[in-house]
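Why does residue order matter? Because the sequence determines the fold. Keep that principle in mind as you read this record.
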Amino acid sequence: MKTLITARFDRNYLDLLETITTDYSFAGYGVTGEKMPVPEMKEKIKGIELLITEFEDITKEVIDAADQLKIIVCCRNEAFASIDIEAATARKIPVLRAAGRNAIAVAEHTIALLMCVSKNMSLTDHLLKYTDELTGVTYNDGGGKRAETMSEWSMDPTAPFALYGGGPEMYGKTFGQIGFGMIGREVAKRARGLEMDVLVYDPYVSQEAMDYLGAKKTDLETLMKESDFISVNCNVVPETIGLVSREMIALMKPTAYFVNTARAKVLDYDALYDALVEKRIAGAGLDVYPVEPIPAGNKFLSLRNVVLTPHLAGSARDIVGHQTEITLNDVKKLLAGEKPRFLCNPEVLG
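Structure:
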């Protein structure tokens, strides 16, 4: 099976690849770090039977140019982001995806954001390195030696211990999880590992499916009212757009923290900003935004009770191994006449 791989690929899985094909080549983003342009892709795909891609745009043009294509693999959670699934389906070409490839990475990032904001880690790190607020010295390059005259850190009311300490422990608190898919379950596992009680809002998942984690299914209003930490980890579908609304944010405790590592469309950012400025909630961690990259002068950049990261939650070096293993195993299933785990267009199998 002649195979073209433009995705990042973990070479530790070459043996697994060679149980499928020994006729393979690497190109595109996985080699150069830049997407192969559509015109080049149209030429490159001729004669290819199996395409394993990640960020290349596999448009109808590309699919129409693929004279031998039998399987498309997209090493992303959402294949529709770069694959014209309708065009592939019209050609009866199965499209596989790498669902859950970054579930662990996002879950760890979610907990890290909550810890950073609730324990003032990012704020005090910044103040130590770049301002004189804690040290009496300005470090223009973020490093350098401390001045010998730096005042002692004391227990008085203006010292860091009093100003920035005193964040809540997670132990024994209530963790609200919005969404209980592959990422949500990994987040909930880590919340349970920190010995928090977990409330879950997900109308599509039963209580029985949550029992193994000791999580409790509830409605969104109850979750917003009772949780000390809240995480959004659901997909964007019509029902979730604007789900975390101004009305929902108004239900939160003044001591509660909120984090969004899912999608911006789920959250009313203006309402969250107002709640943070007015100290109606304690803090937030954000990894996704209505406009990306986040523009200079964005109002969240001025808030001290927010930790911001530039859409990094789903990124970790281990993800390449995960996506390689997930997709190759699904290709093997498909070729063996079995139903793959993550098939975007099952109708092509009849």
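The first strand starts at residue 3 and ends at 5.
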